[in-house]
Amino acid sequence: MSTNIPLLEAFKQTKYQLVGHGNRNLQVLKEAFEHMDGEQESDMYGTGNLIEEFQSKMAAFLGKESAVFFPSGTMAQQIALRIWCDRKELKKVAYHPLCHLEIHEEDGIKELHNIEPILLADKNRVIELEDIVGMTEDVSCILLELPQREIGGQLPSYETLEAISVYCREKGIKLHLDGARLYEITPYYQKTAAEICSLFDSVYVSFYKGIGGVAGAILAGERDFTEESRVWKKRHGGDLISLYPYIVSADYYFNKRSQNMAEYYEGSKELATLFNECEGVSTLPLEPVSNMFHVHFQLSKETIESILVKIYEETGIGFTHYVRETGEESCYYEVSIGDRYATIPKENLKIAFQKLSEKMKEEVSQ
Amino acid sequence: MSTNIPLLEAFKQTKYQLVGHGNRNLQVLKEAFEHMDGEQESDMYGTGNLIEEFQSKMAAFLGKESAVFFPSGTMAQQIALRIWCDRKELKKVAYHPLCHLEIHEEDGIKELHNIEPILLADKNRVIELEDIVGMTEDVSCILLELPQREIGGQLPSYETLEAISVYCREKGIKLHLDGARLYEITPYYQKTAAEICSLFDSVYVSFYKGIGGVAGAILAGERDFTEESRVWKKRHGGDLISLYPYIVSADYYFNKRSQNMAEYYEGSKELATLFNECEGVSTLPLEPVSNMFHVHFQLSKETIESILVKIYEETGIGFTHYVRETGEESCYYEVSIGDRYATIPKENLKIAFQKLSEKMKEEVSQ
């Protein structure tokens, strides 16, 4: 089985796509600015109505006293951990082995801030209270990522979160929320963002995952914390003269999509079921707890790519633009449900999964 | 003498303004994107045609092997100095006492990178070869800011630059150019940007001063240097999923304005002459060497504000939106000539300066 068309190219030619909101192209910005008044003044180095109003809005949404807009979550989270370390005069934090800071930031937390991370839990599961209680070293801060993206977006139970929060407050350990996908977990927990954030001392949220904006992040907490974060934002080179391109688009897509998270979540569960009905395919988690999950195949990357390209060509439905090898005979990709999923006619979806099921059965049984 | 209208408000109501290109409002972005194809793909974490083509264009313009786009100069320059320090295993650099890193970045270079700066020259003049030859300590890198903004945008002679470059190469000291206003000095030196940059190992340029873009910076040098800078860019939280809002606008306004620097420079010299003809007013430098200079008044901030508000109301010409106190009976503001200056009818300009001259004479002689 072979094909000459790469998966990415085949994906781009499909009529429908299972994942995401749409293409990440310049139209995303243009749409957000279309109805904005050109006379509106830019923010200026973190000041001005445009940035201040959005920060206040997000602080209220997250139930925190104050919020600061950052160009990136990488910057916001390193700074949050640095502040908590400085307060306790202890440059140690704890987080999951697959934490964004540990695997996607070129060790910025260590190289720029000299902070030593302690890795909690096995990398294949979420952090539980026992992992924290069992720590042999003191730390200034624990970071929880909800959902844990690199293992398909898994979540601890809400009771576990509450217990961790109580424990950390007792022990004088600050609790920071990596809420890159915070909006996306509110339907599963049946809690508001503010309720979830109340368990944490500081929280970061993103505007280009579930929200689908251009880029940008918010860091929220008590005012003395966010004021200190502004100083570090300048040190990091993040206090740009104008952040409005990100703020305007963050606000626009927040208004457009923050109410849709339950719909994305339902789509995610429905889609995971379809995958799990196919031989040699399983989702992680088996039942999603947000708009995201991972799809694992028990066949080689090359075989799966061939199968997918054929399905794309035969049905016009694109599943993914990539798959990543996990072994000689296994691979996976990540699903994030957005606006696109609901636009796919159910009949077409059914046909695409019939084909996937048939082709998988054929290949697995070989 | 008193007025009830603040200077900023009066300035905003004027028909003409002596400084800048225009208001920093959302229209700056909208104009840049108006003719862009919405289907064009975003850059993705530093890759993609949109960012790569602009980086290549700027590398060629600056005569360097490679260039990397950064969200800010603060980030780009700290990283440049860090790389040079790591190469020499010596965390010491030298720069002017009024260097941006020393006074505008909350000590990021020290707090994030543990780099110790040695301050060269008296703060009221530019760095000369003798200051460098006279250094008693070795350093990894010397940063020169051309023009030296905080003293009105002064420049050393080109021969001095050449001599410093030769000396640093002999001594194994890297030379970095803070070229936030590099385009603006090419008419005075009668050199291309690439010719000036050839004296330096690394260079940063900005896109929102003379160019008038939204924000953003380029760091350029040899490829191994810029590749290393990408790693630090990620550590700093500057490797955003999408930097295109800044890149598209940087490119648009670079194309629109980089050819206008000689015109701005001529305007600057003309305007400085008009100021220097008024009693109690002088410019620094006396004859500008770029599109910028400082205007110093030998009267209190309050008196000057009153005088300016009256002139704005009487002539419709706005000089500045602020003045800064330097003593009880002295104050100043910064001039940057941009697109606006050429739009002012010469007759109106003449009247405004006649009024300034009269009012200054009246007040100085009191």
From TrEMBL, chains A, B:
Xref: Pfam families: Beta_elim_lyase
KW NAD (keyword) present: no
Domain Aromatic amino acid beta-eliminating lyase/threonine aldolase: 39-295
Keyword Ribonucleoprotein: no
SUPFAM superfamilies: PLP-dependent transferases
Keywords of this entry: Pyridoxal phosphate
Protein name: Threonine aldolase family protein
Native source species: Cytobacillus spartinae
Lineage: Bacteria, Bacillati, Bacillota, Bacilli, Bacillales
